[in-house]
Design a protein that fits this description.
This protein has one domain. Helix 3 crosses helix 4. The chain is built from five helices and three strands; from the N terminus they run αβαααββα. The protein is mainly alpha-helical. A hairpin with an 8-residue loop joins strand 2 and strand 3.
């Protein structure tokens, strides 16, 4: 799985900043080249934006799941296996917060499937 297309550069720019909006649009365009089977409205925001530090090792479950098709093709695995593995790597908070997938943990698990 990809960390995200935002790269490692963090951002503290406001969502209304025109420079930032242009950068996000560029990331969306790149994402759609890599994932041509997706529509713009289906791209999770964490795939084209960056955390404040740019070092967050997690992505949304949606961000992981939309990459399944590409991962299946690249790693020559079944869709069912990869989807099931992603599902097992979704960390849901016990009380509050959003669910996440740790990309490193998921990639290590994908490597173990070989």
């Amino acid at each position: 799985m990809d960390y995200n297309t935002a790269g490692s550069a963090g951002s503290n720019k406001a969502p209304s900043n025109t420079e930032y909006l242009a950068l996000v649009q560029k990331r969306i365009d790149t994402f759609l080249i890599v994932y041509p089977y997706l529509k713009k409205g289906k791209i999770p925001s964490d795939m084209v934006t960056a955390s404040g530090s740019g070092l967050d090792p997690n992505i949304s479950p949606q961000g992981a799941l939309i990459q399944v098709e590409r991962v299946v093709k690249e790693r020559k695995l079944s869709v069912e296996k990869v989807k099931a593995l992603v599902e097992t790597k979704i960390n849901t908070p016990a009380v509050m917060g959003t669910s996440i997938v740790n990309v490193l943990e998921l990639n290590v698990a994908l490597d173990a499937l070989k």
